[in-house]
């Protein structure tokens, strides 16, 4: 069951980038689409948790939900949705995989943590991979949109890294609250902020959301991407721990690239492919110590079991 749900998480998160791309390509306002997605998904999930008596409405009154929503949803997805107007879904997925590197840098700055040399090497490797991906746009003026979109998506990962670091404190402050309820609450606030940003910057032509592609994209992202995908992710965290569950970051970008090529006709140059592999390799290096602990844990449990049987 764990492996099946893990594969579903990788597949779902890998396909959400293409779903976003399809929506923005048919002129659905990016901030409006993102706002509707997260607000509706957050309200439905939070309402479900309240109905099951695993959350209280008073949770929404805590400023921590707002601050987490600014980082994990508002800043991250405002940048991603806007950037995917100019960046292929596969490339957007790879750039989004730089989140762990941003978290490492933020922990160095905010928490004064000294990272391992291997983690710093991973950041440099990932930075080189990003350079390979955006290099064509630095040499061809026609690809200026790719350069700007890539920079915006990476900037969004700064919001994500801050939100991820802050959310760890939030889960410690609310240990009795389900992580699904905490995630739903921050999605509500993030969605509202995205709608506010859209109201200030985009014309609200709702007919652009009623095409088959835009509506299908929105429904898929609300139900499959946000509600089912995130619930499965938090189920994995509860069953296995955050390290294993977060390894979707190494799989989903490759899924996104393949699906984008096969289903949407996106092109991948050899330079982009090398850059994608390099970014993922850098992400693995950044998380190497945590991954080692993940693989050592079953070995320790097996050794303890064998020792118990020998007594």
From TrEMBL:
Keywords: Cell membrane, Membrane, Transmembrane, Transmembrane helix. Residues 3-134, 148-287 form the EamA domain. The chain crosses the membrane at residues 7-24, 30-51, 63-83, 89-108, 120-138, 144-165, 177-197, 217-236, 243-264, 270-288. It is a multi-pass membrane protein. It is found in: Cell membrane. It holds the Pfam family EamA. One of its GO terms (cellular component) is plasma membrane. InterPro entries: AA-Vitamin_Transporters, EamA_dom, EmrE-like. Belongs to the EamA transporter family. This is EamA family transporter. It comes from Paenibacillus thiaminolyticus.
């Amino acid at each position: 069951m764990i492996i099946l749900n893990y594969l579903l998480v990788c597949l779902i998160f890998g396909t959400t980038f293409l779903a976003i791309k399809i929506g923005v390509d048919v002129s659905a306002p990016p901030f409006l689409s993102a706002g509707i997605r997260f607000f509706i998904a957050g309200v439905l999930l939070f309402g479900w948790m309240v109905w099951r008596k695993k959350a209280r409405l008073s949770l929404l009154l805590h400023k921590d939900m707002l601050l987490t929503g600014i980082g994990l949803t508002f800043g991250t997805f405002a940048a991603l949705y806007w950037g995917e107007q100019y960046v292929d879904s596969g490339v957007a997925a790879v750039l989004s995989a730089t989140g762990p590197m941003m978290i490492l840098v933020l922990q160095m700055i905010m928490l004064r943590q000294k990272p391992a040399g291997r983690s710093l090497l991973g950041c440099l490797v990932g930075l080189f991979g990003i350079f390979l991906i955006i290099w064509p746009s630095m040499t061809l003026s026609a690809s200026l949109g790719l350069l700007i979109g890539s920079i915006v998506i990476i900037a969004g990962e700064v919001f994500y890294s801050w939100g991820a670091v802050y959310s760890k404190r939030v889960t410690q402050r609310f240990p009795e609250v389900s992580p699904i309820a905490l995630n739903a609450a921050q999605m509500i606030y993030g969605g509202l902020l995205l709608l506010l940003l859209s109201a200030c910057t985009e014309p609200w032509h709702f007919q652009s959301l009623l095409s088959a592609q835009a509506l299908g994209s929105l429904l898929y992202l609300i139900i499959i991407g946000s509600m089912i995908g995130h619930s499965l992710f938090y189920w994995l965290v509860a069953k296995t721990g955050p390290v294993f569950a977060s390894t979707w970051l190494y799989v989903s970008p490759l899924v996104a690239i393949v699906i984008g090529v096969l289903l949407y006709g996106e092109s991948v140059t050899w330079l982009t492919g090398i850059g994608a592999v390099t970014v993922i390799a850098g992400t693995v290096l950044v998380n190497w110590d945590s991954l080692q602990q993940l693989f050592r844990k079953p070995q320790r449990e097996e050794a303890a079991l064998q020792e118990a049987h020998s007594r």
